[in-house]
Design brief:
By secondary structure, the chain is an all-alpha fold. It folds into two domains: 31 residues; 164 residues, Ferritin (Up-down Bundle). Helices cover 68% and strands 0% of the residues. The N and C termini lie far apart (75 Å). The N terminus and C terminus are likely disordered.
């Protein structure tokens, strides 16, 4: 009965030796990680490039927060209440992404760039306001598509070089793809409502909506 219990016996040298080697290697890697920081050991990884990509993504997320907050605050009757709730949820999720990206930048030894003056340049997004709400939502959708394509390229670049950062971008990408679908549905619903009321050519402008 004693032999049935899993254990490393003295006469089972190979199993015992393998187990000791594994633990020793784990400890060695842990000590090395403490010395090197959060970046992987892959020599092909350029830490400066990774930090730049994280910084650009941080700018994208912060600009998207402002976009969604503005749409939500408009409180237009042209948008269904459920759509406004989605905009607020999306804004909060984008803020969460920004927080995660900033934390990763710090973990890699960098400092998050939160300077408002350079947000647009670093994000590569436009923030020009359009006259109608449907056009504004179209611009938001374009911004999401830019974010999605950018993150896909970043994920491909990272590969196995920095698995932690890659997984972060993969999780953010999944949410951004949902945001894009939400925006597309929201805009289509808005246009359908306008057509139903005979106002397809007179979509509400920013100046015509009621603020709450």
């Amino acid at each position: 009965m004693a032999d049935a219990a899993p254990n490393f016996r003295a006469d089972n040298g190979d199993a015992e030796h393998a187990f000791v080697i594994d633990v020793a290697e784990i400890r060695r890697r842990a000590r090395q990680h403490i010395q090197d920081g959060a970046m992987t050991d892959d020599p092909a990884t350029d830490s400066r490039t990774v930090l730049r990509l994280l910084d650009e993504a941080l700018a994208i997320e912060l600009v998207c927060v402002l976009r969604y907050q503005r749409r939500y605050r408009m409180g237009s009757a042209a948008l269904a209440e459920a759509a406004k709730v989605e905009l607020l949820r999306d804004a909060n999720e984008e803020q969460g992404h920004a927080d995660q990206l900033a934390q990763r930048i710090v973990a890699l030894g960098g400092a998050p760039n939160l300077k408002p003056a350079s947000l647009i340049d670093r994000s590569r997004l436009e923030y020009g306001e359009r006259e109608t709400l449907s056009d504004m939502l179209a611009e938001d959708l374009i911004a999401e598509r830019i974010a999605i394509e950018s993150y896909r390229e970043i994920i491909q670049y990272l590969g196995n070089k920095d698995a932690t950062t890659r997984r972060l971008f993969e999780s953010i990408l999944a949410v951004e793809e949902r945001h894009a679908e939400d925006l597309r549905n929201m805009r289509e619903d808005l246009l359908d409502r306008q057509r139903a009321t005979g106002c397809a050519g007179q979509a509400p402008s920013l100046g015509s909506v009621e603020l709450h």
